[in-house]
Each structure stands twice: as structure tokens, then as C-alpha cells.
Amino acid sequence: MFRVKYRIGKTFGGCEPRKEDTLMEIISMDSHKRYSQVCVQDSKGRFLCEQRINHGKGNILDFLSKWKQGDSVAVETIGNWYWIVDEVEAAGMLPQLVHAHKAKLMLGSVKLKK
Q1: Shortest CA distance to 37 belongs to which of 18, 62, 54, 25?
Q2: pLDDT tens-digit profile of 5-56?
Q3: Measured between alpha carbons, how far is 110 from 50 in angstroms, rounded to an integer?
Q4: Domain that holds residue 61
Q5: Is the distance from CB of 64 to CB of 53 less than 8 angstroms?
Q6: pLDDT tens digit string along 46-71?
Q7: Domain-embedded: residue 114
Q8: DSSP of 35-103, one letter per residue?
Q9: What span, in angstroms and rounded, lies between the C-alpha atoms of 104 and 114?
Q10: Rounded to 5 degrees, what are φ and ψ at 24?
Q11: Which of 37, 99, 107, 110 is most buried, by the most CB atoms less than 10 A from its CB?
Q12: What's the total number of domains in the chain?
């Protein structure tokens, strides 16, 4: 299992895929009401790109179309995730839904109430 770290406010490599072939990219999306923060890492955990994408028709599709088709994209299940999944699928990638609260529990950032 890969652990994705976000670096707020930083962009890596101009968000262009590297020329060298990587086995896979790890793409994760932290979705909010009006934008998503997208992070792309290679299989060794090196940051390839991190970018804020404003929500609008085709914006996520345009971003994902630069990366290798068939890779999985972790999508946080927020109130309006369904249209994000449609754009991920249109880009030829496999959406993997992640329950936001359970993911935070696994990372230890939220404590359970007893």
C-alpha cells in the first residue's frame, strides 16, 4: 500500500509526465466543494506533480489525459463525487473510491470517540 503525502502550495515538475517510462503513477484526489487537489507520484513515491484543479466541466479530464491510461485514481467520496468519477473514466483510468473518514482513521489523523 502506498501512502500519499501532500505538499501544500508546491508544484512539481510543471505537472508534465516524465519522458522515462514508469511502471505506474499513483494519482490521488482530495476533493472539496469547488476544487480538487491532485497529487501524482511514481511507484517509488517520488512526486511528479501536485496541482489544484478548479471544478468545471472537463478540467479534471484535461489534467488526467496527460497521464498513462489504465492507472487507478483514488477519489474521495464527498457529496458530489459521482461527476468526478465520470471524468476519471472518460480519461481511461480506473476510479477507486476512498471513504474520507476511514482513510483519515487509517492514517491516524482522526481519533475515535469512546
Answers
A1: 54
A2: 444 444 444 566 554 555 678 898 888 889 999 999 888 888 888 999 999 9
A3: 24
A4: 13-100
A5: no
A6: 888 899 999 999 999 999 998 988 88
A7: no
A8: EEEEEEEETT--EEEEEEEE--TTHHHHHHTTS-TT-EEEEE--TTHHHHHHHHHHTT-EEEEE-HHHH
A9: 17
A10: -160, 155
A11: 37
A12: 1
CB under 8 A, 24+ apart: contacts of 34-37: 36/60, 36/84, 37/6
Length of the chain: 114
List all residues 6 or more positions away from 39 whose beta carbon is below 8 Å from its beta carbon.
4, 5, 6, 27, 28, 30, 47, 49, 50
What backbone phi and psi angles, to 5 degrees, belong to 95? Answer: -75, 135
Which CATH number characterizes residue 74's domain? 3.30.420.40
112, part of any domain: no
DSSP 30: E
Is residue 80 one of the residues assigned to a domain?
Answer: yes
Instruction: Tell me, yes or no, whether 51 lies in a domain.
Output: yes
Q: What is the residue whose three cell numbers read 481519533?
A: 111
